[in-house]
Amino acid sequence: MSRQSPNIFISAGEISGDLHAAELVKALKNHMPHARFFGMGDSAMADAGVELLSTIRDHSAIGMWQSVRELTRVRRTIRNLTAIVKTQRPDYIVVVDCEAIHVPLLRAVQDLNIPNCYYISPQIWWTRNRHDQHQIATRVMTVTDHILAIFKAEADVYTHLGHPSVQYIGHPLLDMAHATQSKADAYALLGLSLDRPIIGVFPGSRWQEIKSTYSHLIQAAQAVVQRGVSAHIVVVLRSAKYADYIRKNTPDGIHIYTGDSYGIIPHLTASLVLSGTVTLEHALFQVPMVVAYRFGPLITLFIRLWLRVKLIQLRWVSLPNLMLQQPVVPECLQRQATVSNLAHELYQLCNPQYPVEQNPYRQRQLHGFQTIKAYMGPAGAVNRAAGLLASWINAS
């Protein structure tokens, strides 16, 4: 390997991972400007200069909840990535989140003895019992040389189990979550008047999420406006893959935003969101939210059986609630994710009888968000990760 121009395989399996990987690549280029980056990702990684030999597909749901069809896609993706690694023989491998793809991938190429790093290891620490935590952490440990952990709790698990190289770096969103345009510019881009606030609707980036939940989110937002809340409704798309479906199923008068989400989230009054990284982004931007999620019937049955076998009581699914172990934001899941329930929770956040700064439902969330920001660690995670990775790559 040339230390001046190493070939680095980097893979992200989801939209949020694509954003994290892109920021990491940008920071790594400050240490090794002549490095070649290639692998799997999406538009953010491509914009950062990664040569995409495979693109993100709709191959995952929440965590490990995949249907049979989705599992087939995951296996196909793992085979494709394995072939890429074996053909290209990179000097170093970096995988980002997405346990379902990356743990099997690292196992499949282990005999090549290519040094690797897991950036943002699987987020299992709040949703599974201690036995499962150790079991999954052990699986990750057996295929990784280095782990960059974004939460101290996960770093502690690996350290306790004896991983030789795990580093707690803090959460990269603290570096990334900054407004990219002013409120006036955001409104002007959408052609909206500044005299009304915006309610955001975030339909997710996966087909099963959109198909199961989107119509409920839209109808709930409309119900709140019809109840007397004077607000614009804006659907925020983070992936163009299902843009045509969203446009066809969005009523007239509701606007669709397809730009950088950090250009709109800071300027929202409240949002309906699906569980995922977007909940932490709202917390960092101090935007109250209602979290929704609806699984398909087969996945729902599987989850219930799996939780029963594992003796797990899953109280929450959104990251803010899991981090603080209390219901900071309302969650409407499965049968509770009805239009009426979603509209009720959203109305509480937008109730015109309260001045915005005196709304007790909003204030409760905002208070919790301050604690979450402190919990996510010191800023500078991306640069710390890049510095460590650069030293490991140069030493390999």
Quickly list its features.
single chain; 396 residues; alpha/beta; Rossmann fold; seven-stranded parallel β-sheet; 13 strands
Q: Quick gist of this model?
A:
The chain has helices at 15-31, 43-47, 68-88, 99-108, 130-141, 152-161, 173-176, 183-190, 207-226, 243-248, 277-284, 297-310, 319-324, 339-350, 360-375, 381-395; strands at residues 7-12, 36-41, 51-55, 92-96, 116-119, 146-149, 166-168, 198-202, 232-236, 255-257, 270-274, 289-293, 331-333.
Describe this structure in words.
There is one protein chain. With 396 residues, the protein is α/β, with parallel strands linked by helices. Helices cover 46% and strands 15% of the residues. It has two domains: 7-171 and 377-395, Rossmann fold; 183-375, 3-Layer(aba) Sandwich (Rossmann fold), CATH 3.40.50. It contains 16 helices and 13 strands. The strands form two sheets. The protein has a seven-stranded parallel sheet with strand order 3-2-1-4-5-6-7, with helices on both faces. Strands 10-9-8-11-12-13 form a six-stranded parallel sheet, sandwiched between helices.
Percent helix: 40-55%
Given the C-alpha coordinates, what overall shape results?
A: globular
Spatial arrangement of strands, main beta sheet? 3-2-1-4-5-6-7
Number of discrete helical segments = 16
CATH level-3 fold name of the largest domain: Rossmann fold
Helix vs. strand class: alpha/beta
String of helices and strands:
EHEHEHEHEHEHEHHEHEHEEHEHHEHHH
CATH fourth-tier homologous superfamily of the largest domain: Glycogen Phosphorylase B
Parts with pLDDT < 50 across at least 5 consecutive residues: 60-66
Radius of gyration: 21 Å
C-alpha end-to-end distance = 9 Å
Task: Examine the secondary-structure arrangement and name the CATH architecture of the largest domain.
Answer: 3-Layer(aba) Sandwich
- Top-tier CATH class of the largest domain: Alpha Beta
Count every beta strand, where a strand is a DSSP E run of 2 or more residues.
Answer: 13
Mean pLDDT, all residues: 89
How much of the residues is beta strand, in percent?
5-15%
Number of domains: 2
**Main beta sheet, described?**
7 strands, parallel
